[in-house]
Each structure stands twice: as structure tokens, then as C-alpha cells.
Amino acid sequence: MIDKRYHVFISSSGPDMQPERSVLAQTLASLGFFSWGLEARTPQTTAFARRQIDDCDYFVLLLGSRYGDLSASGVSYVHLEYIYAITKQKPVLVILHESPETRSPECQEPTKEGQRKFEDFRRQLQRERDMVLTFREPKELEVILRHAMPQLTQRYPSMGWVRPSDVPMKALQLENDKLRQKVAHLTSLSKNRLGTNSAQLKNSLQNGVHIEDESSQLDVPVVSGDEVISFDYRVHAYQDGNFRELRPRRKMTWNEILFAVGPGFRPAAPEDSFARLLNEYLNISALGDVHEVMPRAHATARCQINVRSLHAIKMQLKNNHWIVPIGRDDRHHILWGLSSVGESHLNALMTHQHLETGS
Q1: How much is the CA Rg of the chain, to the nearest whole Å?
Q2: Tens digits of per-residue pLDDT, 240-276?
């Protein structure tokens, strides 16, 4: 019996991929997924497609041998949907035809410009995404999905959807009681932490010690503030009137990451704020990384952290109990905010910085 279902947005180039798209939709349904997507695209359907992508858990891109119908900007609708999905940090599965040139003539791009855009887009997908699979015949897609979707959901967990009637009310009440007890326990521990004097906090930050009460029993791993995480990101670097897209690598401590994103969760904010806040921080600080490759670069823009790294950072901030769920917005999306532990830790970081800078 399926306890949780996920919404999957299927993006494909159009009627030329109808047989393959049908196999995807049928297979996803048999696996317990809801599939969405649009076959006919117009400027009027763009907003609807974006709303569907906003609400989906996973994004599957199916590309044969055509770039797809073009929008007014000259970029195909399927390409625009892909760009929108990655800006929303949706986990992406790409399925490409193994030999697009072998498909029938009516499935090929009719113009040289279309063929060039298709090849560029195909190379971009292979370069950017970590889950890229290929197929030759529509019947192969069922086997591909049955192996790929469990990997995708395991690698990138999502909230999904649970039918209310599938959960007995008694079990919900018991779970609610357990959560209330846990909240009361954590509140008590937080008050104890708040009583720790500033000298202890400053010493803990300098020595990378994560302060915990002896009675605190955490069943998830935590990291100390001075431990380092390394990740890559994309950035547009500008020099002499031109720009290049670079992929520098950044090293940051967990204290630096909390310092960068923590204020953005005062007050509580949706989950996509993690990506926005980190990308904004990188936009401000990327020039130093860029100068290693382009010493005369004078500006940077459009920084975007690697999706897998973003997921690891979000999970660790949650595992450290620095940022916790505190409610839902009017669209029932989870809101995240600083916990009392995270608030205390961030305040100590700010105090420490003020002491160091004298400001």
C-alpha cells in the first residue's frame, strides 16, 4: 500500500515525443506518482506551467531530437521550463534519446538554427545534471523509470502528499502528543542553553566546540561551527564587456553558512529561501573566487549553488537544530525559522564579529 505520493512534472519537446510521454505517464502512475505537464505550449500557458512546477516534487525532462516550439524570446518552452525548475531547486531527472540523429525525418529539427539550439541544449543538460539517462525505444522507458525514480526520491527526499483518510486519527493523536512532549523537552533545554554565559559561547566558537546539555539525546549527526564544507557553484563573471560562466569552488565553515542564511529566517520563511539566501551571499562574495581564473574581472552575477550541495547544507542546518519548521503559509508550504539554539548561536557569532571588527 502506498503511504505517500509525489507529483512529477514531465517536460518534453511536443507531439514528436507523444509515444514516449505516454509511457512515462503510465509508468509513473503504476509507481504511485501523479504526473503533470503540458504538450501544447503558448505564451498563455507559461504561467500555468510554472504553477505546476512550483507545486511538483520532481521534474522529468524528456528530450528526443527536437528543441521544441519557441517562445517569443527565441528559447523553447521546454528549455524555459527546465530553467524555471532549476531556479526553484526542483530535483531533475533527464532522459535523452541515445541517438537523436537516427529518428525519423519528421521528428528532426527542420532548420539549421533549430538543430544548433537542440545540440547546445543537449550538451548543457549532460554537463549540468547528475542524473542523465538515455533510451532508444519507448518501451525501454518503463525499465528506466522503475530504476531511476526510487533513486531520485531517495537522493532528494520531498514532502510528497499523504491521503488524510490513510492515516488513522488515533495514530495522528498519538503522534501529536509525542511531538508536544518533544517540543516541551526542547524548550526546557533551550532555556538552559540561553543561560550559558557569553564567555563560554565565545570560547566554544573559537575552539569549534558544539555546546550540548548532557541530557540532550540527539539521534542525528551534528557538526561543529568551525568544520568546513566545500561546494561548487555557477557564476557569470564580467570582464572587458564580456562574461563567462564559471564553476568556482567555495570552502565555508558552518558558522559562516549560518551567519549568511540565519538572518533570512527572522521571521520564518519558506524552504526555497535557503537557495535564495545562499545565492545572494555568493553574488556578493564571488569576485574573490573568480579572480583566481579571471584576474581582471570586475563584476559577478547570477550565482547558483549546486543542487546537491544545497540539499546537503539544508539537511545539516536542520540536523544541527539551528533552523526548524515552525508552521505553514497560506499555501500549506512549510515555514522554517531559527530555533532558540540557532538564534543563540547566531547571536554569539554576531557578537564575536563585532568584537573582532570593533564595530
Answers
A1: 24
A2: 777 788 999 999 999 999 999 999 998 899 888 899 9
